[in-house]
Every structure is written in structure tokens, then in C-alpha cells.
Amino acid sequence: MNLGSVLVLTCTLLVGTSWATKADQPPKPPCRPGFSESFYTVFVSRDLLRGQSILK
Q1: How far apart are CA 15 and CA 6, in angstroms?
Q2: Contacts of 42-48 spanning 24+ positions with Cβ under 8 A
Q3: What is the DSSP string of the chain?
């Protein structure tokens, strides 16, 4: 074998092993924008009418 073939074979093996290690890891869940908790308690003034925006 010549030096070029050895280099190509070595690079191919390195890339193959790096892909294999990533394939063994469980996938991360997708990021969701917004709040980190699933529910919140909010106290709203009685003066706020139904349908009005809470934020001003």
C-alpha cells in the first residue's frame, strides 16, 4: 500500500468511529421556547375584565 491509501483508510476509520459514538447516544429532546414549568399560579386583579390583556 502506498502512503495515500493508508491516509485515506485512516481518515475513513476515524470518521466512521466518530459517527458510531454519536449514534449510540440518545437524542436530546427539542428545545421549547417559553416557560420551564408546566403550570403556574397567577393572581389577577378583579378590576381586569374578561378578555383584557394582563400585560400592559
Answers
A1: 14
A2: none
A3: --HHHHHHHHHHHHHHHHHHHHHHSPPPPPP--S-SSS-------TTSPTT--S--
The x, y and z cell numbers of residue 11, run together, are: 481518515
C-alpha cell recorded at residue 29: 429532546
Q: Give the C-alpha separation, 15 to 32, whole Å.
A: 31
Model-level pTM? 0.30
Is the CB of residue 54 less than 8 Å from the CB of residue 48?
yes
- Using the Cα atoms of residue 35, residue 41, residue 44 and residue 49 in order, give the sign of their dihedral: positive
State how far the Cα of 28 lies from the Cα of 41, in Å rounded to an integer.
29
Q: What is the pLDDT of residues 27-39, one digit of tens each?
A: 777 776 776 667 7
